[in-house]
Amino acid sequence: MSSKRILVSRCLLGDPVRYDGRSKALHHPLLEKWKIKGRLVPVCPELDGGLPVPRPAAEISGGDGEDVLDGAVHVVTEQGTDVTGAFLSGARRALETARAAGCAAALLKERSPSCGCRRIHDGTFGGGLREGRGVTAALLERNGIRTFCEDNIGALAAFLDDGKEENA
Ligand code: SF4
Question: What residue ranges line ligand 1, CB within 6 angstroms?
Answer without folding.
Answer: 9-11, 17-18, 44-46, 109, 112, 114-115
